[in-house]
Amino acid sequence: MRVTIFGTGYVGLVTGTCLAEVGHDVICVDIDNAKVEGLNRGVIPIYEPGLESMVKANHASGRLNFTTDAAAAIEHGDVVFIAVGTPPDEDGSADLKYVLAVARTIGQHVQRAVVVVNKSTVPVGTADKVRATIAQELANRRTTLVFDVVSNPEFLKEGDAVNDCMRPDRIVIGTDSAQALEKLKRLYAPFNRNHERIVAMDVRSAELTKYAANAMLATKISFMNEMACIAEQVGADIEHVRQGIGSDPRIGWHFIYPGAGYGGSCFPKDVQALAWTAQQYGCNPRLLDAVEAVNAAQKQHLFELMQRHFPDGVAGKTVAVWGLSFKPNTDDMRAASSRTLLAQLWEAGARVQAFDPEATQEARRIFGTRDDLHLCATASEALQDADALVVVTEWKQFRSPDFGKLARTLKDKVVFDGRNLYDPAEVEAAGLAYYGIGRGRSLRTETQA
Ligand code: UDX
C-alpha cells in the first residue's frame, strides 16, 4: 500500500521504516529541510538500536523516501499518518498546533478519498477536531471528498522501538468506518501473524487507551517509588519487597522498579495531559495528580541522599555521574532525572563529571559549556579525582564495576545507586558507603557506623 507519514520524529520515522520494511511504499514528510536531506543521505537524527540500517536498506530499495513537499506526499498516500509532536502547553494540556497544522495541509491538498490516521498521542476528541479541520479546508476549496479519521495510537518504547513496531503486542484501531478498518487491517496484516493483535474500537476509546496505558505504567512506578520511600524509613529493602510481590501474576514483574523517577517524552507529559482532560470534563484526577507529585519528589531523592551523607553540603565536591539519558539505549534526555540532579548539584556548588554512552552530544546541546560540567568520554574518566559516584541511568555497562577500584579512586568512597543496580553488601565489602533507592539497609549501616 502507499503510505504517507507526517513527522519524522521517533514515532513517524520508526513507523514509516517498519511499514517500508514489510513492503509498503512509504513517504515521510517533515518541515525540517536539513533533517529530510540528512535522512535521504542516511543520517538518522536519533539514536535507536537497529533503525539506521533499516532506514538505509529501505531507502536504497526505493520503498522509503523523505520529503518536505507535503502536496506531493499527500498525493502519494492511500493512508496518511499524522505522527507529529504534541508538546505540553503551559497548563499541562497537549498542544495540538502541529497536529492541526498537518490536518490543514491535508485538507488543502488532498485530491481523493484517503484514510487519515492519527498516531500522535492526543487528547480525547482530537480526531473530531482533525476531521473538522480537514472538512473546513475542503469547504474553503469548494470540494467534497470522502475521508476517514482514525485513531491508531503507538506504543513504542524508546530504545526498543523497532522491535515494538515489528512485533506489536496490540494494534489499537479506533474508527466508526468499516472501510477504514478494513484498509488498516490490510496495512497491518504483515504485523498480525500467528494471533490476532488488532483491537478495534470507537475513536474516543482508542484515544483514551493510549493515555490509560501510559498512566497505568507511570502509576506502577510511582507506587513503587512511594513504597521505596517507606522501605527506606522503616529499614526494609525495597528490592526484597519487589521480588516478594512481582511473582504474583496479578502484579507482574514489569514496571515495578523503583528508581530516580520516570522521565522521557511520554509519561510525564501524558500523565499531566490526562489529568488536564479529566479536569476539563469535571473529573477530579486525584490519583494522576499523586502519580505526578510522587515522581517530581522522586527526581530529587538522589540529592537528598547526598545531603544526608554530606551534612556540610556538596559545595566544592566533584561528583561523578553515570548516565544522563532518561533510560538506557537512548540519547533522549527529555524530562530525564539527571537534569534535576545536575541542577541541584550545581545550585549547591558541586562540580559534575558525567558520562553517558550515547547522550553526551545531547547534554552538550542542553547545558552548553560550563565550568562545573565535564562531559567525559568513558565511565572511568568520570571517576578521576571525583569524590562520589552517582548512577542515574541503568546502562548495561554500569552494572558490574570493579568496586575495589572504585573504592581506591573515589575520594569520599561513596556510591549513590539511583537504579538499585548493586548489591549493597558487595559495595560495602569493598570499603564504600552505599545508598540505593528504598534500601533502609543502608540507613541501618549508617546508624551502626
Ligand atoms: C513509554 C511507554 O512504555 C510506551 O509504551 C509509550 O508508547 C511511550 O512511553 P518510553 O518513554 O520510551 O515508553 O520509556 P519506558 O521504557 O516506558 O520508561 C519510561 C521511564 O520510566 C524511564 O525513565 C524509566 O527509567 C522509568 N521506569 C520504567 C522506572 O523508573 N521503573 C520501571 O519499573 C520502569
From TrEMBL:
<dbReference type="Pfam" id="PF00984">
    <property type="entry name" value="UDPG_MGDP_dh"/>
</dbReference>
<keyword id="KW-0560">Oxidoreductase</keyword>
<feature type="binding site">
    <location>
        <position position="86"/>
    </location>
    <ligand>
        <name>NAD(+)</name>
    </ligand>
</feature>
<dbReference type="InterPro" id="IPR036291">
    <property type="entry name" value="NAD(P)-bd_dom_sf"/>
</dbReference>
<feature type="binding site">
    <location>
        <position position="327"/>
    </location>
    <ligand>
        <name>substrate</name>
    </ligand>
</feature>
<feature type="binding site">
    <location>
        <position position="263"/>
    </location>
    <ligand>
        <name>substrate</name>
    </ligand>
</feature>
<feature type="binding site">
    <location>
        <position position="334"/>
    </location>
    <ligand>
        <name>NAD(+)</name>
    </ligand>
</feature>
<feature type="binding site">
    <location>
        <begin position="255"/>
        <end position="259"/>
    </location>
    <ligand>
        <name>substrate</name>
    </ligand>
</feature>
<dbReference type="GO" id="GO:0003979">
    <property type="term" value="F:UDP-glucose 6-dehydrogenase activity"/>
</dbReference>
<keyword id="KW-0520">NAD</keyword>
<dbReference type="InterPro" id="IPR028357">
    <property type="entry name" value="UDPglc_DH_bac"/>
</dbReference>
<protein>
    <recommendedName>
        <fullName>UDP-glucose 6-dehydrogenase</fullName>
        <ecNumber>1.1.1.22</ecNumber>
    </recommendedName>
</protein>
<feature type="binding site">
    <location>
        <position position="210"/>
    </location>
    <ligand>
        <name>substrate</name>
    </ligand>
</feature>
<dbReference type="InterPro" id="IPR008927">
    <property type="entry name" value="6-PGluconate_DH-like_C_sf"/>
</dbReference>
<comment type="pathway">
    <text>Nucleotide-sugar biosynthesis; UDP-alpha-D-glucuronate biosynthesis; UDP-alpha-D-glucuronate from UDP-alpha-D-glucose: step 1/1.</text>
</comment>
<feature type="binding site">
    <location>
        <position position="158"/>
    </location>
    <ligand>
        <name>NAD(+)</name>
    </ligand>
</feature>
<dbReference type="GO" id="GO:0051287">
    <property type="term" value="F:NAD binding"/>
</dbReference>
<feature type="active site" description="Nucleophile">
    <location>
        <position position="266"/>
    </location>
</feature>
<feature type="binding site">
    <location>
        <position position="121"/>
    </location>
    <ligand>
        <name>NAD(+)</name>
    </ligand>
</feature>
<dbReference type="InterPro" id="IPR036220">
    <property type="entry name" value="UDP-Glc/GDP-Man_DH_C_sf"/>
</dbReference>
<dbReference type="Pfam" id="PF03721">
    <property type="entry name" value="UDPG_MGDP_dh_N"/>
</dbReference>
<feature type="binding site">
    <location>
        <position position="30"/>
    </location>
    <ligand>
        <name>NAD(+)</name>
    </ligand>
</feature>
<dbReference type="InterPro" id="IPR001732">
    <property type="entry name" value="UDP-Glc/GDP-Man_DH_N"/>
</dbReference>
<feature type="binding site">
    <location>
        <begin position="155"/>
        <end position="158"/>
    </location>
    <ligand>
        <name>substrate</name>
    </ligand>
</feature>
<feature type="binding site">
    <location>
        <position position="269"/>
    </location>
    <ligand>
        <name>NAD(+)</name>
    </ligand>
</feature>
<dbReference type="InterPro" id="IPR017476">
    <property type="entry name" value="UDP-Glc/GDP-Man"/>
</dbReference>
<dbReference type="InterPro" id="IPR014027">
    <property type="entry name" value="UDP-Glc/GDP-Man_DH_C"/>
</dbReference>
<feature type="binding site">
    <location>
        <position position="35"/>
    </location>
    <ligand>
        <name>NAD(+)</name>
    </ligand>
</feature>
<dbReference type="Pfam" id="PF03720">
    <property type="entry name" value="UDPG_MGDP_dh_C"/>
</dbReference>
<dbReference type="GO" id="GO:0006065">
    <property type="term" value="P:UDP-glucuronate biosynthetic process"/>
</dbReference>
<feature type="domain" description="UDP-glucose/GDP-mannose dehydrogenase C-terminal">
    <location>
        <begin position="320"/>
        <end position="424"/>
    </location>
</feature>
<dbReference type="InterPro" id="IPR014026">
    <property type="entry name" value="UDP-Glc/GDP-Man_DH_dimer"/>
</dbReference>
<comment type="similarity">
    <text>Belongs to the UDP-glucose/GDP-mannose dehydrogenase family.</text>
</comment>
<dbReference type="GO" id="GO:0000271">
    <property type="term" value="P:polysaccharide biosynthetic process"/>
</dbReference>
